[in-house]
Design brief:
two-stranded antiparallel ribbon; alpha+beta; 3-stranded antiparallel β-sheet
């Protein structure tokens, strides 16, 4: 049976100053013209965690920043 471990990381809003995710009153959600420097910061986080074997499961956006939920498979001897 496969076994997994999970990690939650927090990334402050200052790091993503212009990374704006919003939802309208009718429930439509989207990104508003995000500068490439901001998406590159997110890509850096994804690649750093990916090199460690972590797979992104979910991202939660809030006024204080971003919370990312990761999972990776445990090797039998762990």
């Amino acid at each position: 049976m496969k076994k997994f471990e999970y990690e939650i990381t927090r990334h402050p809003a200052e790091y993503f100053r212009e990374f704006v995710y919003f939802c309208s009153q009718d429930g439509a959600c989207g990104l508003e013209e995000v500068p490439s420097a901001q998406t590159e910061k997110m890509q850096t986080i994804l690649n750093e965690q990916g090199r460690k074997g972590w797979e992104l499961v979910q991202v939660a956006f809030g006024k204080e920043g971003i919370m990312a939920f990761w999972k990776r498979m445990l090797i039998d001897n762990e």
